[in-house]
Amino acid sequence: MDGPIDWASEWFNSIVWILAVTAAAAVGSALIGMLLMRTTAWGRQFRRLAMPYFRPTRDRRTWGPLLLILTVLLITITTVRMNVLFSYQSNGLYTALQELDADGFWFYIVLFLGMAAIWVVKELTRVYVQSVLSIRWRVWTNDRMVGDWLSGGAYHRGQFVKDRVDNPDQRIQEDVQSFVSLSLTLAFGAIGSLVSLVSFTLILWELSGPLNVFGVEVPRAMVFFAFLYVIVASVIAFRIGRPLIRLNFLNEQLTGSFRYALVRVRENSERIAFYRGEEVEGATLDRRFAAVIDNVWAILYRNLKFLGFNFVITQGAEIVPLVIQGPRFLAGSITLGDVTQTATAFGQVHDSLSFFRNAYDDFAGYRAVLNRLTGLLDANEEARDLPSIDLAEGEGLQVRAMTVRTPDGAPLVDDLELSLTAGDTLIIKGPSGSGKTTILRTMADLWPYAEGSVRRPLGGRSLFLSQQPYVPLGSLRTALAYPEPPEQVEDDSARAILQQVQLGHLVDQLDDDVDWSRRLSPGEQQRIGFARILVGRPDVVFLDEATSAVDEGIEHMLYQLIRAELPETIVVSVGHRSTLDSLHAGKLELAGGGGWTTGD
After folding, report:
1. How much is the pTM?
2. What pLDDT sits at residue 59?
3. Best CA proximity match to 425, nearest among 577, 585, 567, 578
4. Rounded CA gap, 244 and 414, in Å?
5. 287 close to 243: Cβ distance less than 8 angstroms
6. Burial of 353 by CB count in 10 Å (0-12 exposed, 13-18 middle, 19+ buried)?
7. Where are the alpha helices (DSSP H) in 268-277?
8. How many CB atoms lie under 10 A from the CB of residue 308?
9. Rounded distance between C-alpha atoms, residue 547 and residue 559, angstroms
10. What gap in Å lies between CA 568 and CA 422, rounded to an integer?
11. CA geometry: angle at 284 spanning 249 and 166, to 5°?
């Protein structure tokens, strides 16, 4: 270093430098980002996931996300510049100590306190702004992924695609958070490292002297040695760490599979307990957990190799600048402050060049996250593109030329023709496996292996009840109104309907928020389903074994209740009980193999 710097002018120059470099970094990052998003697979994945959020559109002209990005970028550049200033402050402090300069010593102490105060404010601002950006981006991405999963029934139809995705719930809940946090951490880490590399390379160039290597004098040897040292180490580290990408992907997949098995046990605890199936379930859990642990061991062994190599390289970087600059200090060519600043600059250059090497594990996990999220989007799109019947709005229920097959192409029903008008009732019967439930799925457009046309009321004007009615999370009022908002069910109406379906003992628990799917017995849940019919008052009701858990007396009462309260509603039922025949005016008999007959 030539001499003490002018700190007054240095602060002004630093402000100009920060603004100029931030602008250059913003433009450069945008250009590099566009190049990567066009030329690399992971770049295209990132563009697909992130760009809709940051690109203002006609219906969303907000520049908030981009302004937050620029603010975090400005703070990142400020951090680099302050690190440079701290290196000069440290140089001055140790030089003052070496020269026994008391005034200079206290000047640099006071300067440090002022800079430290600025650093604290900067860091708090960075944490806040980056957290705001992360939270908002995560909310948007979560909404997008959930919306895409639900759109077009992809959450259900996804089970029919060729390559089913595993654990979409885990991908949305965990991978969205990882995607946002890793995107910000890696992006700003890379930018900060590149700017820091340039800044401290200039300092290292200024402080570096010649070095004689095997009789050849290398000018500015410290700079060349730092770059060569880290580049060679990074190439080796990348080769060691490459398998981590696959292992991290497997880790997410296997842990999701194990967690799903645990959830299955919890949700089916009573059935398992009746069978005393603990041993079988335990074996299943052990097997899936063992796969998780095997993969964890593989990750551990690979990380030991990767981190061990990195630790050796990092520790070597601590001593190298002292070994090279020590002789120059002992010869009186440089000051103690120059030595400490050299060590700082070398460390910053080393850390900057080593960013991608040290963050390789994060990049491996990030690539796995990109694969999992875009894989879910691909599966959702494939699910929506599956074949579908021609379903449209219409009065009554009109089925024309409807053919239903199994996934392997075997016919269940050929060229079915039905025409039902207001108040009609129809019972669908046939041997097990003849396609009774599948016909209802087809009419709901949930079965892709079918063709033909269905005209029926859409939206809330049609209601499907399965053998085990779905009971959503929330209050009993929510269960009654589903799929409509609970606010539409008034207290008096809800209490009256509960009385009608013989659930009067629940009238005082309308707003109790408990797990009603576990609180209610199967028969009570089926009666909740019929109560839902009375609340929603649909034009068409499809009932799939909807009274299988109640006795014949209650079954008769429930059907008569629907007829009395909703005389114009079309009722289509699937069932085995002979008692259902007298409750329906029409009958569709399935013979299997595609055959069918109708009659009274």
Report:
1. 0.76
2. 52
3. 585
4. 52
5. no
6. buried
7. 269-275
8. 11
9. 9
10. 5
11. 30
For 267, the token pair is 């949700």
Cα–Cα distance for residue pair 332/453, rounded to 1 Å? 94
Alpha-carbon Rg for the chain in angstroms: 35
| Closest listed residue to residue 533, CA positions, set 558, 512, 508, 553 | 558
Burial 32-46 (b: 16+ CB within 10 A, else e): ebeeebeeeeebebb
The SS3 call for residue 571 is: strand
Is 338:2 a contact under the CB 8 Å cutoff? no
Closest CA to 395 of 512, 222, 207, 540: 540
Query: Tell me, what amino acid is at 449?
Result: Y
Tell me how far apart the terminal alpha carbons of the chain are, to the nearest angstrom.
103
Closest C-alpha to 116, from 77, 94, 89: 89
Residue whose entry in the numeric block shows the structure tokens 């569709």 = 588
What is the bridge-based pairing of β-strands 450-456 and 390-393?
parallel
- What one-character DSSP code corresponds to residue 61? -
Q: Do 471 and 520 meet the contact criterion of CB atoms below 8 Å apart? A: yes
What single-letter amino acid sits at 592? G
* Cβ–Cβ < 8 Å for 528, 468: no
Question: Region 45-49: what's the mean pLDDT?
Answer: 93
Contacts of 382 (CB under 8 A, 6+ apart): 158, 161, 162
What is the set of domains in the chain, with CATH numbers?
7-384 (1.20.1560.10), 390-599 (3.40.50.300)
Q: For residue range 295-340, what is the model confidence (pLDDT) as tens digits? A: 999 989 988 888 888 788 777 777 777 777 777 778 777 788 777 8
